[in-house]
Structure formats: C-alpha cells, structure tokens
Design brief:
Blueprint (H helix, E strand, L loop, with lengths): L5 E2 L5 E5 L2 H4 L12 H6 L17 H15 L3 E5 L2 H4 L9 H16 L3 E7 L5 H5 L6 H18 L5 E6 L1 H9 L11 H25 L5 E6 L4 E3 L4 H24 L4 H6 L13 H5 L5 E5 L4 E5 L19 E4 L15 H13 L5 E6 L15 H19 L4 E7 L18 E4 L4 E4 L1 H12 L1 E2 L7
Helix pairs in contact: 3-5, 7-9, 8-9, 13-14
Enzyme class: hydrolase
InterPro entries: GH, GH_1_N_CS, Glyco_hydro_1, Glyco_hydro_1_beta-glucosidase
Family: Belongs to the glycosyl hydrolase 1 family.
Length: about 475
C-alpha cells in the first residue's frame, strides 16, 4: 500500500478554465454585437428549458469578484476566452474600444493578483453577421479571424504570455454544421467538412497574425478535444469503425497541424460528400506552421461498433459525416450527469498517442472535469464524485509525465457553474457553485480540494486504497 502523495514537477501549471459566452452575460453591454449563440439560444427548442446566455454567471460585471475568488483559491493561471463580437460586433472592421477595454481590465486584475492569463481567441461565439455571410463555410471567415487576432494581440500582447487560437474546432464544425446540436444549428455534412478546413485555416492565419504583433517570448497554441476511440467488440467491422471515427475526431485535425496533410483515408471516406476542392495549395503550409504547445480537452472515452443490418437506420442528422453505419456504445461503469462514462484511461491513451505519433510538442490539459447533480446545502456542496474524477485523471497526468510525456499543465473545467451550451443551466461543471437568481458564489468541496492540490503541487493518495 502506497499512501504517499504524488508530486508534480516544479513549475507545473495549475489553472481553471471558462468560456466567454458561458459565464459573461452582458450580452448587449458596451457595444457587443450578437453571436451565433445569442441567435441559437433564443431560437425555440434549441436549448434546454429555453435558457440563454444573456446573463449567465454575470462575470462581465463581476469579474473582479471572480478574480479575487481565484486568488483566494491560489490559482496560478486562468484560461478564459475573448468574445469576438465584443471586439468586432459584426466580425469585421475596427475594434470596439469598450470591448477591448474590458479584457484589458480583466488581464490587469489577474496580473495584480499574481494570476497568469491564458487567452483563447475563439470559443464558439462567431459574430452573427459573419454567419449570415456564410460562417465557417467560407474562406473569408478565416481571414476575418486573423484580423480579429491581430486586434486583440496588439492590445494585450504585452501582458498575456499564452495565446490559444481556437477551442475544439471539431465541435464548431460538426456539432455546429452537421448535427445542428450547437450554433449555428445547420445540418449539412459537406458544409461541416468545409467548416473544419476553414477553422484550421483560421488557426494558421491567426497564428501568423499573432506572431507579427506578439513578443517573441509569447506562446501560441490550439486546443483540440481529442478522443480515445476504442472498439466495443472484437471484429473487423468494429476496427474499421474505430478508424473512421478516429479519422474525423482526431486525425482530421492532428495530421494537417503536425504533418501538413489531411488523412488519405478520411478524404476517401468522405469523397461522396465533397471533393475537398476548397483546400487550396498553400493552405496546408499555413495550417502546419509551428506552434509552441498543444492544448488537449478530455472528458470521456468513445466506444464504437457498426449498426446491425437488421436495425432501422438512425434518424436525424449526425455529427459524423459518412458514418451512418457506426454505432456508439455506452461503456459500462459509472457516468457523470451528462451520461458520459468515467474512464481516466482514455486520457492516458490520448496524451501518449500524441506524444508517440506526432511532432514532439509540450502538451497542456486545457479542460478536464465533470458535471454531477450538485446540491447546495447549509454546509456547502459535497461533490465527492467530482473530486474522485479529478483525482483519477490527475493520476494519469502524473503517470504520463513520469513516462516522458512533456505535459506541463492542467486546467480544471470549470471554475464556475455556467451556461452549458444546449443543456442550458441544467448541468453544473463548476468547482464553484453559482446560484443564478442571486449570482452568489459558493465553493464546492472540490474547490477546497483543488486549492490543496495547488498548494502542495501534488495529489493525495486515493482514500479507497488506504
């Protein structure tokens, strides 16, 4: 029996993460324009309970209170996103000064409390006017993103050392344009593949724009939600299903970023939907320009098989183009309130896969966490399940580091309970409870636990093994 705490390397970055539309509110404050999520969440039937992000956790007006909370927690780093329509209400043209002023105040407040700002430029809130002009289905949106990146980089580059271009382009492309589960709610698989390319092109052009205005010491990255895709059964068909889903979930993004080309098998699998003629000769060199680190978001594994030929075909749109015959299987064992299987081994698979198969690059876990049915009682929020989830995943992070994976930091998702996209306010991922009617913040037990992790730069042994 080993009950010694697991210590992390000196300088390992501990943080928490949020996203603008999920926490800020202030949807029409100080010249902010509408985003696709404003439109989507106000469309009947799109979001659970008719919820929207108009107020959310009101972070736009309460950011100083929230930064003080972070400081009390001892957070060394805070990952947040900038709302593009606050900076350019229509997605183009000169900067909206009050919007930039807000993020300058946030960054200065973080720095005044000794918290390093980690800035994400795009976490899904595309200005609605750009969507009206074609959204991520058009090359022009990638060019507009580069202009936006330059505006923010010019204003904040002297104070923000770490920059992320995009968060989870898979979600933007396939949930937004293929299944329609996310904004803008379109259901065109061919358009989704086009969107995926233009998102990657935006990353490349945005990286160029940032490099031109940031100090040489600044770090530029992209964050991907990589999947551990496994066969549900031992069969040739299931193995092929793994290849196809892995191609869309992982290699469609990793290969152009780190190898300078799209996977041949994915191009072949999707050829009946598109000829990929929207990929121009110079695009891949732009996409593959070196970055300084890769952000990885991980929550749950993916198990796949093929649909039984005797079963009726699946109804409705899918986020997986050309994969109608693939069946997703619920893994056995415990689940989160999202119905997601809890399995930290999937995170092990992901980080080792990137380390072993792609260009050596520093990795950061930029999101990891879980939603549970938290209840606020007189003595706070007892969320032992979340603590167990975080501990198990941090064990995997520690193990990966000991095996030579260059993994440099971990950001829990999320600092605050927030607007959980199509689930509205029905799901709580925060380590801090938010009472939405009063906006009161209450630390959950997981927040107290995480503060101890940060203070000791390590995790306690699992109580079940003592």
């Amino acid at each position: 029996m080993n009950d010694q705490p697991l210590k992390f390397p000196e300088g390992f970055v501990w943080g928490a993460a949020t996203a603008a539309y999920q926490i800020e509110g202030g949807h029409d404050a100080d010249g902010r324009g509408p985003s696709i999520w404003d439109t989507f969440s106000h469309s009947p039937g799109r979001v659970a309970n008719g919820d929207n992000g108009d107020v959310a956790a009101d972070h736009y007006h309460r950011f100083r209170e929230d930064v003080a909370l972070m400081a009390e927690m001892g957070l060394p780093a805070y990952r947040f996103s900038v709302s593009w329509p606050r900076i350019q209400p229509t997605g183009k043209g000169p900067a909206n000064a009050p919007g930039l002023d807000h993020y300058e105040r946030l960054v200065d407040e973080l720095l005044a409390h000794g918290i390093e700002p980690v800035l994400t430029l795009y976490h899904w809130d595309l200005p609605q006017e750009l969507e009206d002009s074609g959204g991520w289905g058009t090359r022009d949106t990638a060019a507009r993103f580069a202009e936006y990146a330059e505006l923010v980089g010019t204003r904040l580059g002297d104070r923000v050392p770490n920059w992320t271009t995009l968060n989870e382009p898979w979600c933007s492309a396939f949930l937004g344009y293929s299944s329609g589960e996310h904004a803008p709610g379109r259901t065109d698989p061919a358009l989704a593949l086009r969107a995926a390319h233009h998102l990657l092109l935006a990353h490349g052009l945005g990286t160029q724009a940032l490099r031109a205005v940031l100090p040489e010491s600044a770090q530029v990255s992209i964050t991907l939600n990589l999947s551990s895709v496994l066969p549900a059964v031992t069969s040739t068909a299931a193995t092929n299903a793994v290849r196809r889903i892995d191609g869309l979930a992982n290699r469609l993004f990793l290969d152009p970023l780190f190898r300078g080309h799209y996977p041949v098998d994915v191009l072949r699998d999707t050829a009946r939907l598109t000829d990929w003629s929207f990929v121009l000769p110079a695009d891949l060199a732009v996409i593959a320009a070196p970055i300084d680190s890769l952000g990885i978001n991980y929550y749950t594994p993916t198990l796949v098989d093929v649909v039984d030929p005797a079963d009726p075909p699946a109804d409705g749109p899918s986020p997986w183009p050309a994969c109608r015959d693939v069946r997703f299987v619920q893994p056995p064992g415990p689940q989160t309130a999202m119905g997601w299987a809890i399995d930290a081994q999937g995170l092990r698979n992901v980080v080792h896969r990137v380390h072993d198969q792609y260009r050596p690059i520093p990795l950061m876990i930029t999101e990891n966490g879980a939603a549970f049915d938290d209840e606020l009682g007189v003595d706070g929020v007892r969320d032992d399940e979340r603590i167990a989830y975080l501990r198990d995943h941090l064990k995997v992070v520690h193990e990966a580091i000991t095996h030579g994976v260059d993994l440099r930091g971990y950001f829990v998702w999320s600092l605050l309970d927030n607007f959980e996209w199509a689930y509205g306010y029905a799901k709580r991922f925060g380590i801090v409870h938010v009472d939405y009617p009063t906006q009161a913040r209450v630390w959950k037990d997981s927040a107290h636990w995480y503060r101890q992790v940060i203070q000791t730069n390590g995790i306690d042994s699992d109580p079940d093994t003592e």
